[in-house]
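Example protein was shown:

_____
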Amino acid sequence: MSGNIGTARFISTYAADSSGVCSALYELGGMVVVHDASGCNSTYTTHDEPRWSYMDSYVFISGLTETQAIMGDDEKLIGDIAAAAEELAPSFIAIAGTPIPMMIGTDFKAIALETERRTGIPSFGFATNGMNSYVSGVDMALGAIAERFVTERYERTEKPSVNILGATPLDFSGSDIYCQIKSMKQLFERSGIETVSCWAMGDSLENMAKASSAWANVVVSYGGMSAAETLKKRFSTPYVIGRPTDGFSEKLIQDIRKAFDTGESGITAYSGRKKGSGKKALLIGEGVACESMAYALAEKTGVQTAAAAATTFDSKLLCGGDALATDESQLTQLIADADIVIADPLYKTFCQRLGREFLSLPHEGFSGRMFRSGISDTVSDISFITDRINNL
């Protein structure tokens, strides 16, 4: 059993897709309803959402009962949503699924259509099921925002500009939740590039609706891909894939300028990574983050670097030698082939069992709030990793 694909004995799981929907839409003035008995929403609020302590948001649970699940009573769900929406007047309504609705075949799109008909409020139905990582939920949610709310073709900004796509606290967190977002905007500003909007931290739905005025989009996590593709299709806005990271940002800026000049889209800025030599370092986590960090480490240390995308990701975006690794058996093989593993602290025991050097890189989307105080601003500085690698 231990060798079977999908079996996990030592490694925890990433935040679920329903949490990704909630996180992506948290600040945008909408109402999110997680269709479940109670457990999935409490997991999100307890472990995956650091903004609760100082910022309100309309995130609810449907309170699905056993009888409703058996009988398929969607009327109760729609009626409750409509009643809450009448009182709260949200900008939009989003209904997200969990394992139980998946098992009974709930039609979320139909529920959203009926909800919108009754309330007159833009409504979305997301067939999340708790079986996929938060990244897929973020991608669904931001893609829907781009499709529904970014409809007007605004005139381009006078100065070169970008939208930041795919930013949530599940990937960008820390003691100061917005520290890395501020650092990204400052990086672009120093490079003479304005930030039109950030999807979706520290920004508003009204501002995001003006995304068509940007010269290009920067996909900082895979959760921003659907939005990038929609904006490309609708407004011909090119996009560049890469997370601003110390040691990689210069290459990213160069490729953003290339997109400005040529209109070329789908640029993976982290491609062309140095091969390196000597010890091999493996990064585990969200795909864009790992690929960008691998590029930076190769530049700064000269070691061989490889990335293991442990969340939802497109294998076509991987650099040579990298891999998708969404289960324990795949990760075991990759870790066994590495000398140094860089990942969330919850991987530490597993890596030590395999006799590998371990360097901590906390990730809110994996370990929740447990190691939040240890999350660093990797946009500005990764010396806490490079110094240790150089000293090994």
Remarks:
- Residues 17-132 form a domain with the Rossmann fold fold (CATH 3.40.50.1980).
